[in-house]
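# nightly structure sweep
# worker-07 picked up a monomer target from the shared queue
# config: single-sequence mode, recycle default, output format = structure tokens
# input follows
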Amino acid sequence: MTPAEAASTAESATHAAEPESVGPAPGATPPRNPLVARAAAELMGTALLVAVVVGSGIQATELTKDVGLQLLANSTATVFGLGILILLLGPVSGAHFNPAVTLAEWWTARRGGAGVTLREAAVYVPAQIVGAVAGAILADAMFGEPLVKWSTHDRSAGHLLLGEIVATAGLILLIFGLARADRLQFAPVAVASYIGAAYWFTSSTSFANPAVTIGRAFTDTFAGIAPGSVLGFIGMQLVGSVVGLALVALIFMPGRSAE
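# output follows
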């Protein structure tokens, strides 16, 4: 065996002894996919999510005048739709569909965690916003509503803004807590279930998503939000994101090894 062959054999043995690299953390963007594919997945996923939210709201109001049943139908459709979208598109882009999640992931990445870069976040967020607007227009088109009609549903009350802080903080805690606990495989069920529950336990019915908030301003239907309420909701969602990340850092604090 020549020295070169011996070195090659030793190198192969070393690689064989090393464990296979694990996949990206939940929410982290798989590096093997081109950025254009990830952006397309974020745009399409957010569009379909908003189409589910707005479309099911329109359908519910046409089928019953009972507001409780309307919300039940709306939340149930959202749970199933969101779970499927995360399961389908998660391996492509991380299935953020939410600027709050994208920005939180960028923040953790810049501090040494896995996640999107600033350049990737700058592509994700506009894609999510465009997708959300397109999804609202698509839902209106499917039900014969005006394609764009600004919502008149005012959601500016203080208790609703508090609801958005709670909803978004819980969402961020869940997603990044699953990542810290190495339980990201449960994200499709866990995230969809949380949003479904938050529809009912938060006063705002849990928008928890700046892109979806913008998209829902374009439809004057059950799921709409008045343009004048959008900035307040987005501001509270960003506050909720900070609270959520702080809770993740506190609750999932790394343990110290015994001295």
